[in-house]
Design the sequence.
C-alpha cells in the first residue's frame, strides 16, 4: 500500500487553472480510493496498480484542451500498512498534543515511531 501526492496543472492555460484542476480532482474522487485535496497537492492511497491509472486519467483530463501539462508526483510506498493517509498526520498531531485527524484514527505502534517517518 502507498500514499501518493500529486499536482497536475495545464501550462499556458492562463492565470486560473481551477477548472482543469477540478476535473482532475473529480476523477480522483470518483475512483473510490481514499483521497484528500489540499491547496498544493491531491493525496490518494492505494496499491500502485490502482493509483497510477487514476493519476494518468487525471493528467489526461487536464491536458484535454491541448495544453502542455505539468505533473509532480511523490510516493510513500510502505507495504503492509493501510490507512496511512490519515494515520501519518495523526502521529504528528499526537506528538504536538492535538488530534486533527479525528476519532477514527488508530494510534501508531511504537515501532512505527522509531522509523523516522510520520
Sequence:
Amino acid at each position: 500500500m502507498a500514499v501518493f501526492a500529486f499536482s497536475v496543472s495545464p501550462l499556458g492555460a492562463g492565470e486560473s487553472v481551477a477548472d482543469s484542476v477540478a476535473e482532475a480532482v473529480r476523477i480522483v474522487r470518483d475512483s473510490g480510493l481514499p483521497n484528500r485535496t489540499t491547496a498544493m497537492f491531491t493525496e490518494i492511497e492505494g496499491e500502485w496498480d490502482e493509483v497510477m491509472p487514476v493519476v494518468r486519467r487525471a493528467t489526461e483530463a487536464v491536458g484535454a484542451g491541448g495544453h502542455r501539462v505539468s505533473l509532480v508526483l511523490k510516493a510513500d510506498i510502505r507495504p503492509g500498512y493501510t490507512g496511512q493517509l490519515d494515520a501519518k498526520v495523526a502521529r504528528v498531531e499526537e506528538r504536538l498534543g492535538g488530534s486533527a485527524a479525528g476519532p477514527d484514527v488508530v494510534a501508531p505502534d511504537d515501532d512505527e515511531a522509531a522509523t523516522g517517518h510520520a
